[in-house]
Amino acid sequence: MTGRDLARRDYEALAAFRHALRRFAAFSETEARAIGLTSQQHQALLSIKGMPRESAHQEGVSVADLAAHLIIRPNTAVELVDRLVGAGLVTRQDDPADGRRTLVALTPRADALLRDLSMIHREELRAIRPTLLRLLDAF
Predict the structure, then answer these.
(1) Which residues belong to any copy of the HTH marR-type domain (predicted)?
(2) Which domains does the chain have, with CATH numbers?
(3) Residue range 55-67, pLDDT digits in tens
């Protein structure tokens, strides 16, 4: 068997790892839905809050950067931001450093929702950490 061959245990490890990821994704979707968010909205809020900023003083992220971070098309990101603005979860403002860009920032309501949801996710990740580490060690 060469280094490029896969043994049955490799397939089992890959399947188990993918299963663990799907279970966490399902958990995440259920928790987001429980507070009235879609999975995509939750991911957008988390990205807006957690993405690195060009400057420590920058409020929000550009729609283009959000699209890249979520791995969606820019027009899809614009539609998502429109829905988040409509739901009172984000605000838009012109980028003071570059008037061609629009920055998106969380509202206080979204910040509170995201904090609660992130705490639940952190607890779940801590609970499944041993399983994830064991699965990763299989590789």
Answers:
(1) 7-139
(2) 8-137 (1.10.10.10)
(3) 655 778 999 999 9
